[in-house]
Amino acid sequence: MVGHAQLESVHPFVDGNGRLGRWLVQAALRRRGVVRTLAPPVGLYFATYPRAFTTAIHAYHDGDVDTWCTFAGDALQACAASAHTLLTPTPAPTRAPTSR
Q1: CB atoms closer than 10 angstroms to residue 4
Q2: What pLDDT digit, counting tens, does each position of 36-56 carry?
Q3: Strand, coil or helix: 32
Q4: Which candidate, 52, 53, 48, 63, places its Cα nearest to that of 21?
Q5: Alpha helices of the chain — where are they, by DSSP H?
Q6: Separation of alpha carbons 68 and 85, rounded Å
Q7: How much is the pTM?
Q8: Strands, E assignment, 1-100
Q9: Where do the structural domains in the chain lie, given as residue ranges?
Q10: How far is 51 from 31, CA to CA, in rounded Å?
């Protein structure tokens, strides 16, 4: 997640920095074995909380790595919990027998 903040700090491209940063998060999670098949969609969390994202990324730019890491950790945890909920199989509903 620090890699995402570093990329945003350098901002090397006119367009596409956010997409590349979100891809970097996904790639890092898979490479480190944190996830095997599906990485939580952290970019959706960033988009849902734009003020918190902006505050955290600016804090990182100002040298406050802890604020960014706390925000990013909260994002990962929330997205992982949502993904788990969505992907956990639920029992098929049982239908009451119909009378004829």
Answers
A1: 24
A2: 776 677 888 888 999 999 999
A3: coil
A4: 53
A5: 2-10, 17-31, 42-48, 50-61, 65-87
A6: 26
A7: 0.64
A8: none
A9: 2-85
A10: 29
